[in-house]
Amino acid sequence: MPRDEEFLYASGRVKVLENRLLGRSVIERVLEAENMEAVLRVLSETDYAPEFEELESVYDFEKALENSMKKTLNTVRESLKDHRIVRFFTLKYDYHNLKVIAKSRILGADVPENLSNLGEIPVDELIKLGKGEGDAKVPEAMKAAYGEAMRLFEETQDPQQIDLFLDRALYEELIELTKEIGHEFLKDYLVALVDLINIKTMVRLKYMESDLKALEKSLLPGGTIEQAFFEKYFKEPVQSLVDALSSSRYAKVVKEGLENWISTGSPATYEKLSDDFLLGILKKGIYKPYGLETVAGYIGAKENEIKILRVLMVGKINGISEDVIRERLRDVYV
Amino acid sequence: MEITLGQVLALLGAAMAVFLPGIGSARGVGMVGEAAAGVVTEDPSKFSQTLILQALPGTQGIYGLLTGFVVMQRIGLLGGNLLPLTTYQGLLVFAACLPIAVVGLLSAISQARAAAAGVGIVAKRPEELAKGITYAAMVETYAVLALLASILMLFGLRLS
User: Fold this and answer.
1) Which residues in chain A have their CB less than 8 angstroms from residue B43's CB?
2) Domain containing B141: what range?
3) Whose C-alpha in A3, A68, A262, B31 is 20 to 30 A from the C-alpha of B58?
4) A290 contacts in B (CB within 8 Å)?
């Protein structure tokens, strides 16, 4: 387990950078902005100024958000000897790219779109892998996962199998990574993440009237809630799942989120509450003067902030009313 | 002149009084320095504030050195006239060195932890620097008490 002292330098940097995270008042001002120009005016006073200045069109905001996240990841990476902590957060981007490439290959598209810049495996190497070139510099685990996902697709001709298999592979690799790092904080975060995703998956599949087999394939490994539990409640009304989890740590998320889902048919509240729950775990980082928690908490906080900004931007561009956007806004870290 | 076991023990005590708190202080100052460097990387204006915090765990090393000097003076090493100490006298000097040797080492590291947390205060609220210093300085009390105990014992011993 890494000692807190190994994070002294990085934590010092992070403590200053935490000041530059957007507070509630800035989010509120973005929310109240009348149009995109006003949004950009507010953001030009924040840490996002350089990224948004470079933009040619506000519709490219995704690029600006990605660049800002990249800057954060680089800052943390250069402050740490052990890059695995950053890897814990960037692995999902590589798997996202892997999915995009697999699907573009199926569709026969030459240059895949929507590739993320935040992954650590060069996109060119992944494209090489997609083209079936054997010398692509991609880690073996990912190569194997890609091969297996493609094989499953050939077998079933169902593109969703690729997503399901690669998601599972991602979480298996994350479990390995947290074991290797050996710090309770990341393990705890991953467990909660998996449990909350699995609850959502189950309810979603239930509403889609899928069968047990689909559920088995969709549940992610690494959570504290057993597969048998989900299988049992899959056949019962959602309310019984809420009751069954009423004494778990997810009680509040499940009660408010799922009851809202039952009544409105939308998972938005559940998603928001899950994110807030996960942010609550990350918030240990603020109260710790130095250590892995401080650094990992900050990366998670930045991801959360980008999510908030994305909701705000999409809402503003599409002229969605303030109240509707507000309902979907996540809690902030600082 | 023949060297006695007492002299060796007394000198061993002096050496421990110097090197153990010295190690503690070096580690402590290093720890706070790392955290401070992190803050200054992002905000260079915080240099002087963090420097004060960095210096705090350095005092234990000074206390140890001071104790070492007192021993040297008491056993006549400084004057070039080393007293012919008996084994028991040597053990007494050795025992007198223990408080600052042990407390110096451990308190320097504890103080460094508090001071590194203080660096976090400076990062967030530079105007509250004094509070960060106060928290870290509280640890100093115990290093001072240990120094006091060691010095009183050393001056109380009748060696000649």
Assistant:
1) 16
2) 5-156
3) A3
4) 35, 116-117, 120
